[in-house]
Here is the input.
Amino acid sequence: MEELKRAVAREALKFIEDDTVISLGTGSTTAYFIEYLGKLIMEEELEDVYGVPTSHQSRLLAIENGIPVVSLDEVDAIDIAVDGADEVDPSLNLIKGRGAALTMEKIIEYRAGTFLVLVDESKLVERLGQRMPVPIEVIPAAWRAIAEEVEVFNAEAELRMAAKKDGPVVTDNGNFILDVRFHRIDDPLDLEIELNNIPGVVENGIFADIADVVLVGTKDGVKRLER
Ligand code: 5RP
Here is the structure.
C-alpha cells in the first residue's frame, strides 16, 4: 500500500512546473508528494514554486522539506492543489477529512486552477459513504444538537475522539468533528449543500464536483481518471 502511495506521489510531480503556487494537502499520501517536491526544489530542478499548506501537518512537512510556504491570503491564485481522499466515486466526487483538515482543504481546493487527487485503488467506491463516514466540522457548542439533527438524513453521528489526548479531536480551527454514517448517499452535491445549511456546521467532507484529475495507484501502475 505504501508503494502505491509513493507511486502516485511521484506521478503527481509531472503536473508541477516552474513559477507555480501549489496547495499542499494533508495525509499520508500527500506527505510523500511533499517530500518529493521538496527534493526537486532543493536540487534546483524546480524554481519559484510556493506551497500553500492546508493544515498544521502540511505546513510542518513543507518547512521540513525546504518548500517555501505562503498562506492563502498572500497569493493571487492557486495554480494546482494536490491532496489525498478517503473515497472516490465514479463521477470523481470525494469524501475527505479523515485527517480533520477538511475545511481548509475545501477552501483552498475549491479555488485551485486544477485539483489533483492522489489515492490508491482501495479508495475507489461505487457510491460515497460505502465504507467511510462523512466527517463534519462543527462549532463545539453545537455538536450535540447537530448530531441529533443529522438523524433526519437517515444517519448516525459520532463525536470523533482523540488518540493521544483525552476528549474529542480539536481541529486546526478549534472545532470538533462529527463522523456521520449515512445509510445511502444518492446525490452527493445535494447532501453537501444541505449539511452546510445546518447552523453550527463549519464544513463537511463531501467534495462534490471539484476534483479535476484523480491519480489511482494500482498494482498494474498509476491510472489517471478525469472528469
Ligand atoms: C485529510 C484528508 C486526507 O487527504 C485523506 O484522509 C487521505 O489521507 P491518506 O492519504 O493518509 O489516506 O482528507 O483531512
Observations:
- The first helix runs from residue 2 to 12.
- The pocket of ribulose-5-phosphate is lined by residues 25-29, 83-86, 96-102, 105 (CB under 6 Å).
- The chain has two domains: 2-125+208-226, 134-204.
- The radius of gyration is 17 Å.
